[in-house]
Amino acid sequence: MRFDEAYSGNVFIRSHGNYEESQAVIYGMPMDWTVSFRPGSRFGPARIREVSIGLEEYSPYLDRLLEDIKYFDAGDIPLPFGNVEGSLDAIRTFVAKVLADGKFPLGLGGEHLVSWPVFQAVYEKYKDMVVFHFDAHTDLRDNYEGYEYSHSTPIKKVCNLIGGKNVYSFGIRSGMKDEFEWAKENMHLYKYDVLEPVKQVLPTIGNRPIYLTIDIDVLDPAHAPGTGTTEAGGITSRELLDTIHFMANNGANVVGCDLVEVAPVYDHSEMTQIAASKFVRELLLSFVK
């Protein structure tokens, strides 16, 4: 596995050219092998990078510049097309290497199942980790149509791995009734909103390591139509930015994050991928110190 140069294609704006000297690593997980509605999220990582050229390097929210940190864009991990387990293994191996080298991993999806091997790799290093999950959907199924590997299962899998009481889901507004009932007893699930419940929860976490996973469909389709499973009634782009900044300004010990489910083909205006690239900038400047 190469770490001396990006795997392929464009890189995120101002990516540092040296893996060894980097503090953070951006990597793509171009997989949508298990989607149940609209495919296309495998093209998300590449397009997020491409539109990042339109970003300013300065964040007025944080008064920081991208040049203040060193991050390396490794490009998209080469995944075996259509091979679910092989793809998950490749992601897990890659992220384990990044973590072993003491770097902050920032992943771009891809369907939400790609977060599952990342959870596993992060848990190997941080046994006291908690997961913050921003999403429209519960993702708490045990399987989908009999298949255990599905974009609707990663949060149930991580609950089983680290204990549901260490998993916090925010912005949820869609799922099966039995998923919501299971969540009441076994984890922390907050419906519809993100910022206010994060304000309530964060002080209870202390300095425990947080892994943050963001499904772009936590946003209302008016703000992010370019995703596979849109769900009306979501938050605004401003609310997501405010939440990221609240965490940054209030001591959240975020040790890694991902942004998934951007499917550019469904948004010819490109507002989804442009917003996603801005979120990536703010995540880097918020949590890479």
From TrEMBL:
<dbReference type="GO" id="GO:0033389">
    <property type="term" value="P:putrescine biosynthetic process from arginine, via agmatine"/>
</dbReference>
<dbReference type="Pfam" id="PF00491">
    <property type="entry name" value="Arginase"/>
</dbReference>
<feature type="binding site">
    <location>
        <position position="217"/>
    </location>
    <ligand>
        <name>Mn(2+)</name>
    </ligand>
</feature>
<feature type="binding site">
    <location>
        <position position="112"/>
    </location>
    <ligand>
        <name>Mn(2+)</name>
    </ligand>
</feature>
<keyword id="KW-0479">Metal-binding</keyword>
<keyword id="KW-0620">Polyamine biosynthesis</keyword>
<dbReference type="InterPro" id="IPR005925">
    <property type="entry name" value="Agmatinase-rel"/>
</dbReference>
<dbReference type="GO" id="GO:0008783">
    <property type="term" value="F:agmatinase activity"/>
</dbReference>
<feature type="binding site">
    <location>
        <position position="215"/>
    </location>
    <ligand>
        <name>Mn(2+)</name>
    </ligand>
</feature>
<feature type="binding site">
    <location>
        <position position="139"/>
    </location>
    <ligand>
        <name>Mn(2+)</name>
    </ligand>
</feature>
<feature type="binding site">
    <location>
        <position position="137"/>
    </location>
    <ligand>
        <name>Mn(2+)</name>
    </ligand>
</feature>
<comment type="function">
    <text>Catalyzes the formation of putrescine from agmatine.</text>
</comment>
<dbReference type="GO" id="GO:0008295">
    <property type="term" value="P:spermidine biosynthetic process"/>
</dbReference>
<comment type="similarity">
    <text>Belongs to the arginase family. Agmatinase subfamily.</text>
</comment>
<protein>
    <recommendedName>
        <fullName>Agmatinase</fullName>
        <ecNumber>3.5.3.11</ecNumber>
    </recommendedName>
</protein>
<keyword id="KW-0378">Hydrolase</keyword>
<dbReference type="GO" id="GO:0046872">
    <property type="term" value="F:metal ion binding"/>
</dbReference>
<keyword id="KW-0661">Putrescine biosynthesis</keyword>
<dbReference type="InterPro" id="IPR020855">
    <property type="entry name" value="Ureohydrolase_Mn_BS"/>
</dbReference>
<feature type="binding site">
    <location>
        <position position="135"/>
    </location>
    <ligand>
        <name>Mn(2+)</name>
    </ligand>
</feature>
<keyword id="KW-0464">Manganese</keyword>
<keyword id="KW-0745">Spermidine biosynthesis</keyword>
<dbReference type="InterPro" id="IPR023696">
    <property type="entry name" value="Ureohydrolase_dom_sf"/>
</dbReference>
<comment type="pathway">
    <text>Amine and polyamine biosynthesis; putrescine biosynthesis via agmatine pathway; putrescine from agmatine: step 1/1.</text>
</comment>
<dbReference type="InterPro" id="IPR006035">
    <property type="entry name" value="Ureohydrolase"/>
</dbReference>
